[in-house]
Amino acid sequence: xxxxxxxxxxxxxxxxxxxxxxxxxxxxxxxxxxxxxxxxxxxxxxxxxxxxxxxxxxxxxxxxxxxxxxxxxxxxxxxxxxxxxxxxxxxxxxxxxxxxxxxxxxxxxxxxxxxxxxxxxxxxxxxxxxxxxxxxxxxxxxxxxxxxxxxxxxxxxxxxxxxxxxxxxxx
Length: 171
Known about the structure:
Helix content: 10-25%
Strand order of the largest sheet: 1-6-2-3
Distance between the termini: 26 Å
Number of strands: 9
Shape: globular
């Protein structure tokens, strides 16, 4: 019996849309270069309608630099996120583009042939109180509604302030 394994997969078929994928290694060391490499590989003769991206979250990648590099594709829409999250410590993630398996990598898929409408569903109904991020740097959250994020987290979860991934990931 396996524990702690999570898979995020995407499968799309269409007679009207076309797709190309690229896997770029080494995003943690130079995320802008990785984004540019993916963008150039997927640009084709015209910009794609969208880029769908998944990357290894364990590299501590500078997402702003990655997105800046991906912006060179000319795609007006960028959809993406890190890999699926387990309930507990994440030990390793893998990125797969259909032919290669890698770590410390980005998988980007170009979408062509129609306008793109972006919507999100995580299979759950939102619960809790809506809050506005009032201070963040990169992917680090510091304030919600003008209050320290850790204080808000403690109130919402009854947590003691011990930041273990098992507790934070489940919130």
